[in-house]
Write a structure and sequence with these properties.
By secondary structure, this protein is mostly helical. Helices cover 47% and strands 0% of the residues. The protein is globular, with a radius of gyration of 17 Å. Bound molecules: heme C.
Length: 147
């Protein structure tokens, strides 16, 4: 029995390597029932997040020093002040009045529903309803911001 339990974490680690969307179920299982954002972040995968970020590319760049599009450049956004990602970008008052910084919890709420987070924001994106997809995108934003 002890042997088996000792190997369970190892097995889930193996299941987590080489992530794509294919191991989504394994990752959700590893996160446990009704996972908190912390639990989801433990199984989040930046590569899966990169794929989902395809939905953001119409309006956002993420490379260092890249130009703003319809939305601000998002390089290194995690940890920056809300509405503080790009010095050149003209943010709405709706987003500027939110205050605080982009930590995992605020980013998770924003990506759930931009309009609920900052009513009147110009980010006309419906939101990502899937909590694991949001955690993956946050992992991607964190990874792309590291340098
Ligand atoms: C249709 C265009 C559009 C899409 C698609 C879009 N955004 Fe945005 N985004 C914007 C705009 C415009 C703003 C600025 C909002 C404002 O000022 O109210 C913004 C702002 C942001 C900010 C705040 C940046 C800061 O400096 O504080 C983050 C973070 C963000 N978007 C992430 C995302 C992510 C992640 C996705 C994809 C899941 C996404 N956006 C999809 C247009 C878009």
């Amino acid at each position: 029995m002890a042997f088996r339990f000792a190997f369970l974490p190892l097995l889930s680690m193996l299941a987590l390597t080489g992530c794509g969307d294919g191991d989504r179920e394994a990752r959700l299982k590893a996160a446990g029932p009704n996972p908190s954002l912390d639990a989801l972040m433990r199984v989040a995968n930046a590569d899966a997040g990169a794929k989902t970020f395809g939905q953001c590319l119409a309006c956002h760049t993420i490379g260092k020093g890249e130009l703003d599009r319809g939305g601000p450049n998002l390089h290194g956004i995690m940890g920056k002040p809300v509405a503080g990602g790009s010095e050149r970008f003209g943010y709405t008052a709706a987003l500027m009045r939110v205050g605080g910084r982009w930590d995992r919890a605020t980013m998770d709420r924003w990506l759930t529903s931009p309009q609920r987070f900052a009513p009147g924001t110009r980010m006309t994106f419906a939101g990502l309803p899937d909590p694991l997809a949001r955690a993956d995108v946050i992992a991607y934003l964190e990874r792309e911001g590291r340098e």
